[in-house]
Design goal:
9-stranded mixed β-sheet; two-stranded antiparallel ribbon; globular; 13 strands; mainly beta; 146 residues; 2 helices
C-alpha cells in the first residue's frame, strides 16, 4: 500500500526498471529531458528501492541531485558517506568519483541534473557491501542559497 501512496505523492513518474549492470538492487528511471545539440543537460527522476545504489562513477561536466523523497546516501571517493533526506541538494563536482542510492531500509527518490557538455558518465567499480554498510557517515543539509 505504501508503494501506491508513494507513487501518487511523487512529483514525477517512477519510470522503467533499470536493467544495466551499473546499479546494485532495483532502481527505476524516468527521463524528464534528454540532452541534445541545443542543451547538453539531461534531467532524470531516479527511484531506488531500499538497498539499491549506483556503481562508483563520475561526470566530466558535474551533476546536481535534488532529493524529493526517502532516505539515501551519497559518497565521494575518500570522504565519509552522507545521509540524504527530502529537500537536500547535492552538487557532484566534475570528474570526482562518487556513488549514491537508497539507505538500507528506505527507498530514495532523486532528480538528477547532468551536464553532458564535457562527456557522459564514466562508470567505475561496484560499491562493495563493506563500503555501503560502513557506519561512519555525516548528516549534512545541502541547499542552494540566493
Amino acid at each position: 500500500m505504501k508503494d501506491i501512496k508513494q507513487q501518487k505523492e511523487n512529483i514525477f513518474p517512477k519510470g522503467e526498471k533499470i536493467t544495466n549492470e551499473n546499479f546494485t538492487g532495483s532502481a527505476y528511471l524516468q527521463m524528464l529531458m534528454a540532452s541534445d545539440s541545443l542543451n547538453p543537460t539531461s534531467v532524470g527522476n531516479v527511484t531506488f528501492e531500499a538497498g539499491a545504489r549506483t556503481k562508483w562513477h563520475l561526470h566530466p561536466g558535474g551533476q546536481i541531485l535534488l532529493v524529493t523523497d526517502g532516505v539515501g546516501y551519497y559518497q565521494e571517493k575518500g570522504q565519509p558517506k552522507k545521509v540524504l533526506h527530502k529537500g537536500d541538494v547535492i552538487k557532484c563536482p566534475p570528474n570526482i568519483p562518487h556513488w549514491h542510492g537508497a539507505s538500507a531500509d528506505t527507498s530514495f527518490v532523486q532528480v538528477a541534473i547532468t551536464n553532458n557538455h564535457k562527456g557522459t558518465v564514466v562508470w567505475l567499480e561496484t560499491v562493495t557491501d563493506e563500503e555501503y554498510n560502513k557506519k561512519k557517515y555525516r548528516r549534512v543539509k545541502f541547499h542552494f542559497s540566493y
